[in-house]
Automatic annotation (TrEMBL):
Alphabetized Pfam families for the sequence: DUF1091
Annotated InterPro entries: DUF1091 (IPR010512)
Organism classification: Eukaryota, Metazoa, Ecdysozoa, Arthropoda, Hexapoda
Name this protein carries in UniProt: Uncharacterized protein LOC111593959
Key words, A-Z: Signal
Stretches of the chain forming a coiled coil according to its record: none
Endpoints of the signal sequence: 1-26
Native organism: Drosophila hydei
Length: 180
């Protein structure tokens, strides 16, 4: 009896692993473009903002900027998510995040997903203040962190970075999520 149970457990694990691997193959979640736009060059110096295609389903973002003055406490990040349907029309989602509060204790569900996606590739893993280099190295998108219900499509995630109540930097991430 118990041997058979053991075999059944073994087979269902194997099935789960095979299912997971085939799911892994069927999902494509990658950057298609990434645009950085510095508004205030006396605060932000952009050193690198470049995508590199690694293979058919993977692109890496390398991002490197210098904060020429420290960002002590007032950081607002305006998030807008668009889905392309004959152009990027109305946003699907919009929120304003208090950056310093967020890195202390993440609090918005969409911002938490975005943060999980890039955190391990970046040096944005501490609390305020921020100064000097802000880096993302070989950042590629991993679908494990996504909610289950993201429809297949082309998306744009706009982040506007506001320090001292003024827009200083814009980053526009274009990505595709394709599930067969
Ligand atoms: C991407 O494609 C490569 C082969 O080109 C494959 O080995 C890899 O598992 C794929 N990655 C994902 C996330 O689908
Ligand atoms: C641009 O950045 C400088 C700091 O280098 C700051 O003093 C100034 O207020 C900023 N200008 C705007 C319009 O935000
Ligand atoms: C970031 O850019 C600066 C200036 O170009 C460069 O000196 C530095 O090595 C870069 N850092 C990384 C980790 O690529
Ligand atoms: C933050 O990231 C840097 C660079 O990846 C790493 O050296 C450091 O240990 C990390 N710090 C924390 C608190 O996780």
């Amino acid at each position: 009896e118990s041997k058979r149970d053991g075999q059944q457990t073994y087979f269902s694990w194997a099935a789960a692993i095979i299912f997971f691997l085939s799911l892994n193959d069927a999902v494509q979640f990658k950057f298609t473009n990434f645009v950085c736009d510095v508004v205030n060059k006396s605060w932000v110096k952009l050193n690198q903002c470049r995508l590199r295609a690694v293979n058919r389903n993977e692109t890496h973002l390398n991002f490197n900027l210098t904060l020429l003055h420290p960002v002590k406490k007032e950081v607002l990040v305006e998030i807008q998510l668009f889905k392309r349907e004959n152009g990027y029309k109305p946003w699907l989602y919009k929120a304003s995040i208090d950056g310093c509060r967020f890195v202390k204790k993440p609090y918005n569900p969409v911002a938490i997903i975005v943060y999980k996606l890039f955190k391990t590739y970046s040096n944005l893993n501490h609390t305020c203040p921020f100064e000097g280099f802000i880096l993302l190295k070989k950042f590629n998108l991993k679908f494990e962190y996504l909610p289950n219900a993201l429809p297949t499509g082309e998306y744009l995630l706009k982040l506007d970075w506001i320090f001292s109540k003024k827009l200083q930097l814009r980053t526009n991430a274009y990505f595709s999520f394709i599930e067969d």
